[in-house]
Amino acid sequence: MAVRITDGLRAQLDVIAQLNDRTVTEEIRLALESWIEASKSDPKVLQRAETVRAEIEREAQTKQSAIEAIFGAADSGAKTPSSRGKAAPA
User: Fold this and answer.
1) CA 9, CA 66: separation in Å to the nearest integer?
2) Which segments of 1-90 does DSSP mark as H helices, in order?
């Protein structure tokens, strides 16, 4: 992954890494882990997650309905594909 940052931010990151006796990569990883954990309890993120989850469920239901319209209801039993022109294995 490549991330573009300003020279000033990079300089600050370098200093923080040096002060903490860690690599820049480790500082970035730790910062991202902390940010992700904080995001998990952010009310705006939680609300957006519920909205996205509902959208996904609606899309899934629409696709399920389309499949049922094409192939019939799932409880009608699974059909195996035909083997047109193919000989059965010996």
Assistant:
1) 50
2) 7-19, 24-40, 43-71
pLDDT at 31: 98
Calculate the CA 56 to chain-centre distance: 12
Q: At which residue do the structure tokens 């049922």 appear?
A: 68
Q: Which two tokens stand for residue 64?
A: 């399920």
Burial of 40 (0-12, 13-18, 19+ CB in 10 A): exposed
Closest listed residue to residue 28, CA positions, set 53, 2, 50? 2
> Distance from first CA to last CA of the chain, Å, rounded?
51
Alpha-carbon gap, residue 66 to 43, rounded angstroms: 35
pTM flag (> 0.85):
no
CA dihedral 4, 8, 14, 17 (to 10 degrees): -90
Residue type, 83: S
